[in-house]
Amino acid sequence: MRRFAVARSLFEPTTLARALDRMGFVQADPIRAPARAQDLMLRHRVKGYRAGDLERRYAKLDIEEDFFVVYGYVTRRIEALMHPRSDAEVPAEGSVPWSAAQKQRAREVLAFVQERGTVHPREVDEHFSHGKVRNYWGGTSNASTHLLAAMHYRGMLRVARRQSGIRLYGVHAHGPEPADAAERSERIDALVDAAVRVYAPLPSASLSYLVRRLRYAVPQWRGELTAALRRARERLAHARVDGVDWYWPASEKPTHHRVRDEVRLLTPFDPVVWDRDRLEMLWDWTYRFEAYTPAAKRKLGYYALPLLWRDRVIGWANLSVSAGKLRSEFGYIESRAPRDTAFRRELESELARMRAFLSLGTSSTQR
Known about the structure:
Elements: H1 2-9, H2 16-23, E1 25-27, H3 37-42, H4 53-57, E2 63-67, E3 71-75, H5 76-82, H6 100-116, E4 118-119, H7 121-128, E5 132-134, E6 140-142, H8 143-154, E7 157-163, E8 166-171, H9 181-199, E9 202-203, H10 204-212, H11 225-235, E10 237-241, E11 244-248, E12 263-265, H12 276-283, E13 305-309, E14 312-322, E15 325-332, H13 341-357, E16 364-366
Parallel strand pairs: 15-16
Antiparallel strand pairs: 1-3, 2-3, 4-8, 5-6, 7-8, 9-11, 10-11, 12-13, 13-14, 14-15
């Protein structure tokens, strides 16, 4: 099962368009350490990938930024299954429905975007002067930016592209709602299957968790996710291993998977390690993401990258760039690195790939 998890997710590198189509969804995260999560994921799966390629080529790819199980980049085929959700509650606003005044502001902004074509949040703020609003985390945010994000979630707007990391918005149109309950169930089942394709094989508890997270993809149908989970358990392939039921797409087989002699440094959000419970089951190691942990309490580091050797997670690395050089610090679950020369050779190869991905020189500092 461990070999299956690694081999099916870390497939043979291909073009960016094909990799995105195969994955269906790539989680996004703004932290750069040493690059954003979406780029760190795609570098393993796309030939010659360089940090920032997804953002640079976004407008020409068949993808959209949207919420799926989390926020990220989803293919338009999958996105079409989730919309329209125009009357849905916005996660960052809690369960408070829009007031009549908020709906009127949204209509005004929508007309403004229709007139301009593509807008920067600054243009909206300068035109409407919405002021400030208390955000989900208890601080204050620009009200125009907050409203644009809410309109994006509801499907009124789409991210047309980014400029220096900032979302530029355009109007978004969606197809009709499902014609009946049967079509609605088909859509939900297709979304479950898409999520499973990204994160399989899944232990039973993780499958339940993943399906529940689709409440962000289809909040308008969240009351139907329990039934969707029951159908998924019947539809997916599964096996009981050491007392745990595991699930994966019915078209795939967990046997005959070969894992290459290769070292890979994975972002904390990579599908191989995203499910922390599964990670602990497969590799008997408890990994914690510590970017938001006070520095004095960190055990692994600010943005520790799990270190995969063949089909084993054996440690972690913290990478940074200083004076144009890649700096790396390593830790190992067994307190030391493997002694065989193959590991040392492949680790150097992975660091060389990382430097190329970051467009750095050939030198690095390693600890």
